[in-house]
Amino acid sequence: MPDGVIIHEGSTDILVPELHSSGGPGKIQGGVFFNEQMAFNRDISVMFLRAVGRDLTVADAMTATGSRAVRIANEVKGTQVTANDISPDAIPYIEANIELNKLENCSPSNRNLHSLFADEAFDYVDLDPFGSPAPFVQSAILGCRKKGILAITATDTAPLAGAHAPKCRRRYQSEPVRGYMCHEGGLRILMCSIARELAKFDRGMKPLLSFYADHYFRTYIQIEEGAEKADKMMALLGYMKYDMATLERSTSVHYDPEHKYGPFWLGPLHDQEFVSRMDPAGMAVEKRCTKYLDLWKNELDTEVFVYDMSELSSFVKMSPAKLADFVELLNTNGRASFTHISPTSFKTDLPLNDIISLYKEASPDSKK
Ligand SMILES: C[S@@+](CC[C@H](N)C(=O)[O-])C[C@H]1O[C@@H](n2cnc3c(N)ncnc32)[C@H](O)[C@@H]1O
Asked: 3-state DSSP helix/strand/coil percent for the chain, to nearest 5?
């Protein structure tokens, strides 16, 4: 057994290098990568695959210590898991973790994922790279069986959210948007880039769950087969106008000098019915899972992205009401919800003028 410490996550034991990351994007510290904070991300995979509810072949293509792979094999019935990593240093950890949990449905694999997916296809393919998944998406699509599921993480938050726009243009061929909607924008750029890759193979997509948390973006996509599905998917890509001075925003399926941000995925982020089937009981960070599931289930999918109370407060120059009270007020005039993107943001289908006048009405300053 390689050197390390055993941690307990969900109902699984995982041997990891003693020196490992406990937050942020993390970095390799003890030879093989492990980040404790990603327990939430692994919890989501377990809940997600349980909700799929059928036997699945799974490829955790960049598994490092095998943490996600062994959690899936141990905690999701009916899975046959391949725990793959290109690094030979990862293999002793993967083997030890299979042994530790006495798993018969998990096998180690030491391959470059490009060659793995040229040879073999799976029902569920997971990509969890350092930084951008862009160089790996095409291989992952090839490695996904008909009507399979792709799960992709991106930790290159700065380019996707517009802090390094040239890198976003290179990796994703999209113009990122800045300001309070930058994280939703980043998530939707990632999803758009996957859609454009799928279209090359006459495949479409239905997102089942997509989110921004901590330092990363993550999307779970049900692949749909055929040119017709691909065309329908392409019709959901589009551009955004956003004027920080006036807060005006709108979307368009075509690029024009005003609608200059994007392209983004403008379809739904989640399948709410699917998310309702995900059960947080017994997860490593159960409370956090419960909170996010609740946000995702109730999140409005509006044409334009999130609004933020801080953005409105600096525009209107009046202090904000409590977000819960304001969302309630918006809901009496139209539809509104909290969002998982930020605790100060909300979504609504009301026009900007209505949002501004309701903001003024709700502001504690107007009651003085
Ligand atoms: C961020 S770590 C994965 C963390 C892991 N999924 C977890 O939850 O702990 C990225 C891993 O991808 C592996 N990797 C990089 N390029 C690869 C490739 N072309 N094929 C397979 N694995 C690769 C690295 O060796 C590294 O272990």
From this structure: 40, 25, 35
Domain holding 346, by residue range, is 307-367
Mean of per-residue pLDDT scores for the chain: 95
Q: 83 to each of 120, 139, 215, 216, how far by Cα in Å?
A: 13, 16, 24, 22
Does residue 259 share a domain with residue 119? yes
Please write the tens of the pLDDT for every residue from 157-190.
999 999 999 999 999 999 999 999 999 999 999 9
For residue 28, give the CATH number of its domain: 3.40.50.150
- How many residues are there in the chain? 368
- Ligand 1 pocket check: which of 38, 62, 214 to mutate, most ligand atoms within 8 Å of Cβ? 62
Per residue in 291-325, pLDDT tens?
A: 999 999 999 998 789 999 999 999 999 999 999 99
Q: Which residue has the higher pLDDT, 101 or 368?
A: 101
Is residue 153 domain-shared with residue 273, that is, in the same domain?
yes
Q: Report the nearest atom of ligand 1 relative to the CA of 42.
A: 8
Q: Which atom of ligand 1 is nearest to the CA of 90?
A: 27
Residue 264 to residue 172: CA distance in whole angstroms: 10
End-to-end CA distance of the chain: 68
CB of residue 112 inside a 6 A radius of ligand 1: yes
Prediction pTM value: 0.96
Same domain, 25 and 140: yes
Asked if residue 111 and residue 16 are part of one domain, the reply reads yes
Q: Which of 298, 325, 343 is the last residue of a domain?
A: 298
Comparing CA positions, the residue from 29, 147, 34 lying closest to residue 85 is 34
| Domain end residue (candidates: 271, 298, 325) | 298
- Claim to verify: residue 151 and residue 248 sit in the same structural domain: yes
Summarize pLDDT for 259-284 with one digit per residue, the tens: 999 999 999 999 999 999 999 999 99
Number of domains in the chain: 2
